[in-house]
Amino acid sequence: xxxxxxxxxxxxxxxxxxxxxxxxxxxxxxxxxxxxxxxxxxxxxxxxxxxxxxxxxxxxxxxxxxxxxxxxxxxxxxxxxxxxxxxxxxxxxxxxxxxxxxxxxxxxxxxxxxxxxxxxxxxxxx
Length: 126
Prior knowledge:
The chain is an all-beta fold and 126 residues long. It is built from no helices and 11 strands. Helix content is 0%, strand content 48%. β7 (68-73) and β8 (78-83) form a beta hairpin. The relative contact order is 0.31. It is globular, with a radius of gyration of 13 Å.
C-alpha cells in the first residue's frame, strides 16, 4: 500500500528552524519526484518545493527561497524539508506528495501529484 507520512512539525518561534520528514512506502521512491506543499487556514494549497527523483534538481517558491532546503535519501525512503529563519506567515499544514513523474517541471499543479500524506502542522509564533 502506497503511503507518505509527514512528521517533524510543531510550534517554533520566529527565526527558528524545523526539519520535516516524509517517510514513504509502497513504491520505489527513487523513481519519482516529490513535492512539499502547505495550506494555511482560509488559503489555497500552495507549492513550496520539489525535488526530482535523483535529487539533482530542486526548485522553491519565491517565498521560501534561501530559507528552506529540500533533500532526499532514497535508500531510507525519506524526503526532508529543512526550514530555517521561519516567519509567522510560514504557519500552515505541510504536506508531501508523490509526483506522477521523475521530474518536477515547476511546483504544481496539484493534479500532477497522485498521492499525498496526511500533513503535519507547523506553527510559527512567539
